[in-house]
Amino acid sequence: MQKTIKTIETQLHDQLAHATSLKEVEEIRLAVLGKKGSVTQLLAQMKELSLDDKKAVGPLLQELRQAAEVSINKRRDFLVQQEAQAATVKEQLFDVTVGVSKAQRGHLHPYTHIVEEIQRIFLSMGYEIWDGPEVETDFYNFGALNIPQDHPARDMYDTFWTDAAGHLLRTHTSTVQIRAMQERKPPIAGIAPGRTFRHEAVDASHDYQFMQCEGLFIDKNVTVGHLFATAQTFLKALFEKDTLDIRIRPGFFPFVEPGFEIDMRCVFCKNGCSVCKQSTWIEVFPGGMVHPNVLKAGGIDPDQYAGFAFGFGLTRLAMLKYGIDDIRLLYSGKLKFLEQF
Ligand code: DAH
């Protein structure tokens, strides 16, 4: 037993010397002085010893217990003191004048930027901003726009039909023209930026969802001159150019007559580049004079009023304005891309 006492004592000192946390010290204490600790067990075994052995071992054990308590407390006090010192040093080293890194701030999506810009330009020309549903009926997407059932022009639009008969995801924002006419009396002037959907295979320049902006202007004595001037004024403002040539070509859209493709002079080059496919012209602004059938569908008398409409690809303009070469980035949620705006 004397040997055991000696071993416990050396082990204890060794362990305490290596203990660097209060938790470790507590574990050591439990292992020696706890209910099942080595010293406690030895004390319990005393009962079984002869009187002589008791006399010989008893004082040693008591001594060991007291010495263990003292050493453990000493080590604990030392560690407590060390921790306190470390805390004070930390506090002294804490520099309240050090710059704090800026909290991360959110920012607007490129779509939000360009929609706000477009709205600002048209508001300055006296237009209203309209909104319309993304799930539409056959009537607003096709019928009222002079595209009756079985009309081949329906093939131009790869349509997502819904399970509800006659309902679809709008393939263009022209739907809002009809709603606007139904709700207002001329003169009418407004734009409707919004999401549109087509059943397209996705690649760098096609997505099954994209944004368009429809425009409608109706009054007495409206001519194609007003349409061309509006296109030019808008494009000059959007691309921040003092002068900007436009070019007009005939185009077919069932809801306008005559219909046009309005191109703008390439804003990126003088002699041809990859954006304008070496032609120096960029196709941006389809439009035309609202077809009498469409005016009628909107409840407006074509003998009294005339109007022009246009429907440009907002996604395309955003890609041109910000130099985005892959349409998929716009809905990707990639921060590396989005943080540039
Ligand atoms: N809705 C047409 C499309 O998605 C774009 C368009 C062309 C709208 C001419 C118009 C317009 O209002 O006059 O292809």
Overview of the molecule:
- Helix content is 42%, strand content 18%.
- It is of the alpha+beta class and 341 residues long.
- Strand 6 and strand 7 (256-265) form a beta hairpin.
- It has helices spanning 2-18, 22-33, 38-45, 51-93, 110-124, 138-141, 175-183, 224-238, 292-297, 314-322, 335-338; strands at 128-129, 135-137, 167-169, 188-197, 209-219, 246-250, 256-265, 281-290, 306-313.
- The protein contains eleven helices and nine strands.
- The strands form two sheets. A seven-stranded mixed beta sheet has the order 1-4-5-9-8-7-6, sandwiched between helices.
- The longest helix is centred in the first third of the chain and has 43 residues, at 51-93.
- It has two domains: 2-92; 110-338, BirA Bifunctional Protein, domain 2 (2-Layer Sandwich).
- The mean pLDDT is 93.
- It starts with a helix and ends with a helix.
- The protein binds 3,4-dihydroxyphenylalanine (DAH).
